[in-house]
Design brief:
419 residues; mainly alpha; 14 helices; 0% strand; elongated
């Protein structure tokens, strides 16, 4: 066991005392009065944190686990003899955690301070956390969250992380992570509809649906615009916000596959986001119609894994086709392949471009040009779909947002390319 210097020991003791005081103050406020008051308060938590730090400092074998066992035993006795009407064990568990954090403060003071602060925040946010778990979070949302956590923590680490040449250099693990990202956005979109109300929820649903397919989002809201012509402006604004999602997801995928390309795309993507959001959010400034639009149904799980997997398969297929086009026909074949792939969806060609950039076969300038070609081609597709699905009035509003987004992105790219 390495004995720390006197300055390091004093620093660890000071941080441990600070942690004990912060957590103890929070517990003291909830301790209560009279016969039903809790056993541990400000002084108990401060002493416990200091005890953990001292146990770590003293060169006595097994002193830390002995102290931990003693604190756990005292916490158990305190809970057994408690007369409080609240049967929870939060204070007892927090007391043991404070001892362990006191030990950590000597080993790594900054990490110990961070852990103590998080513990105090968790204790202080009791009512907010309870309200979130019991009132704000629905049964379906809880199920979706648990499923996403299981996929992220159990399944994702088992997927190989190395690149596969036949996929254009895309690694399977980032591809799987994108599937999880899309599913998480699906869940967030349904929660937005329920939490933000119909107007805000529709705009949030339009934004979230764009992470799956902006074209499908434009078509879906266009059908509703034909059924509810009084709300064409609001539905067109919601569809326009899917263009924001297109840029956000393009930036996220690019950064995951090639951080350098993501940094180069950042100002262009932000300009595209600003253009689409400026037009898409205009319905919020307009007065609400007398009859509110119908809210999307939320009686089932928000997760649609088939759609997310379809996006992942499209990414892999387009990456293969675009990579082949570049190898056989050079830059001209690359741009033509990108344009053809983007007729259906812009996400897949952007991912393939990012993988080529990461492999060192595509310079940054060509990458930015390819992204603009992909988004521009897909913009034409979405405008045509808006006209067919929602009619002339709906299509004009959607096209205004999409063209504004593309124009801002192109202007940013031209400005950045100046010598």
């Amino acid at each position: 066991m390495n004995t720390p210097t006197s300055s390091a020991a004093m620093s660890g003791l000071a941080v441990a005392l600070g942690v004990g005081l912060i957590v103890g103050i929070e517990r003291e406020r909830r301790k209560g009065d009279g016969d039903r008051r809790a056993a541990a308060g400000l002084r108990t938590f401060a002493i416990t944190a200091l005890a953990g730090a001292v146990a770590q400092l003293l060169p006595v074998p097994a002193l830390v686990p002995i102290g931990a066992a003693l604190v756990a035993a005292l916490a158990a006795v305190s809970h057994w003899k408690s007369r409080s009407s609240d049967p929870g064990m939060t204070t007892e568990i927090a007391l043991f955690a404070t001892y362990m954090i006191g030990v950590l403060c000597v080993i790594a003071p900054s990490l110990g301070a961070a852990c103590g602060t998080v513990l105090a925040l968790l204790l202080a946010a009791r009512r907010r956390l309870h309200r979130f778990a019991t009132e704000l979070l629905s049964e379906h949302e809880l199920h979706d969250g648990v499923l996403l956590a299981a996929l992220a923590l159990v399944v994702l680490p088992l997927i190989p992380s190395g690149p596969i040449e036949m996929l254009g250099g895309i690694a399977p693990r980032p591809l799987a992570a994108m599937v999880l990202l899309i599913m998480a956005i699906q869940a967030a979109g349904q929660a937005a509809v329920r939490w933000l109300g119909v107007r805000g929820g529709l705009l949030g649903a339009g934004f979230a649906s764009g992470f799956v397919s902006s074209t499908a989002t434009v078509a879906s809201f266009g059908d509703r615009a034909r059924e509810q012509p009084l709300h064409t402006g609001l539905l067109a604004g919601a569809a326009a916000l899917s263009a924001v999602a297109t840029w956000v997801l393009a930036l996220a995928m690019t950064t995951a596959l090639s951080p350098g390309a993501g940094l180069a795309l950042l100002p262009v993507a932000l300009a595209g986001v600003a253009g689409a959001a400026a037009v898409g959010l205009l319905p919020l400034l307009a007065p609400s119609p007398a009859v509110a639009p119908e809210a999307p149904a939320s009686t089932r799980s928000a997760l649609r894994p088939r759609e997310a997997l379809a996006v992942a398969l499209a990414l892999a297929l387009v990456a293969l086709l675009v990579g082949t086009a570049q190898r056989h026909f050079g830059d001209a074949g690359l741009q033509v392949g990108i344009a053809l792939a983007a007729l259906v969806d812009a996400h897949a060609p952007v991912a393939s471009l990012a993988s080529l950039h990461a492999a060192g076969t595509l310079p940054t300038e060509r990458f930015i040009l390819g992204v603009l070609v992909a988004v521009g081609t897909n913009t034409l597709t979405r405008c045509a779909v808006a006209l067919a699905a929602g009619g002339r009035n709906y299509a004009l509003r959607v096209a205004a947002a999409l063209m504004a987004s593309l124009a801002c992105a192109c202007a940013a790219a031209i400005w950045l390319s100046r010598p």
